[in-house]
C-alpha cells in the first residue's frame, strides 16, 4: 500500500493501525457465538495491540470508547461515512453508496484488468491513478484520509 503524503502531526494515531488491521476473522474468545466475526475497531485503544474485535468484545472491553464498524463490499473493507467523518477529514475521498449507506474504502483496491471494459474517467486518484466516479482526489482513506 502506498502511504499518503501527509504531515505526521496531522494523522490521527489510530489511522495507520486501522489501515493495516485484518478484519473478519472469527473471534478467538467468542467463536461459538453468532456475530463473532472481528469487524469492530476501537479508535481509543488502537495504540495497543487490540486490533479488530467482535460485537461481544465491544461490550466487554470497549464500553464508552469510540468504536467503528468495518463492513465488506466486494471483498474489500469499507466504513460508513457517518461513522468516520466525525473523527477524520475525508474531504476529497471518493464515496460510494452500498446497501443504501454512503461508505469509503479503507485501502486502495486493485486496478481493473487491462482487458476489462471500463468507462474512461477524467478523474483519477492522486496516489494510485485509479479511475474515480466523481471529481474526488483519492480512491480510499488509505490514499487520502486526513489529506
The gist of it:
14% of the residues lie in helices and 17% in strands. It has 4 helices and 6 strands. InterPro entries: PLATZ.
Please characterize this protein's 3D structure:
By secondary structure, the chain is of the alpha+beta class. The protein has one domain. It is 14% helix and 17% strand. The chain contains four helices and six strands. A hairpin with a 2-residue loop joins β5 and β6. The longest helix has 7 residues.
Largest sheet: 6 strands, antiparallel
The helix/strand series, from N terminus to C terminus, equals HEEHEEHEEH
Percent range for helical residues? 10-25%
Query: What value does the Rg take, in angstroms?
Result: 16 Å
Work out the helix count.
4
Please indicate the count of domains.
1
3D shape: globular
Q: Strand content of the residues, in percent?
A: 15-25%
* Strands ordered across the widest β-sheet: 2-1-3-4-6-5
Are there runs of 5+ residues with pLDDT below 50, and where?
1-9
Number of strands: 6
pLDDT averaged over residues: 85
Structural class determined from secondary elements: alpha+beta
Q: What is the terminal-to-terminal distance?
A: 16 Å
Amino acid at each position: 500500500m502506498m502511504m499518503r503524503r501527509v504531515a505526521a502531526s496531522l494523522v490521527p494515531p489510530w489511522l495507520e493501525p486501522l489501515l493495516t488491521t485484518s478484519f473478519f476473522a472469527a473471534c478467538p474468545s467468542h467463536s461459538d457465538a453468532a456475530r463473532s466475526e472481528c469487524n469492530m475497531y476501537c479508535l481509543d485503544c488502537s495504540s495497543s495491540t487490540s486490533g479488530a474485535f467482535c460485537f461481544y468484545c465491544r461490550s466487554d472491553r470497549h464500553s464508552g470508547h469510540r468504536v467503528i464498524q468495518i463492513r465488506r463490499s466486494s471483498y474489500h473493507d469499507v466504513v460508513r461515512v457517518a461513522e468516520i467523518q466525525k473523527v477524520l477529514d475525508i474531504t476529497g475521498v471518493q464515496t460510494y453508496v452500498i446497501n443504501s449507506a454512503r461508505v469509503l474504502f479503507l485501502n486502495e483496491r486493485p486496478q481493473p484488468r487491462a482487458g476489462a471494459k471500463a468507462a474512461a474517467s477524467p478523474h483519477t486518484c492522486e496516489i494510485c491513478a485509479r479511475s474515480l466516479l466523481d471529481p474526488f482526489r483519492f480512491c480510499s482513506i488509505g490514499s487520502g484520509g486526513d489529506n
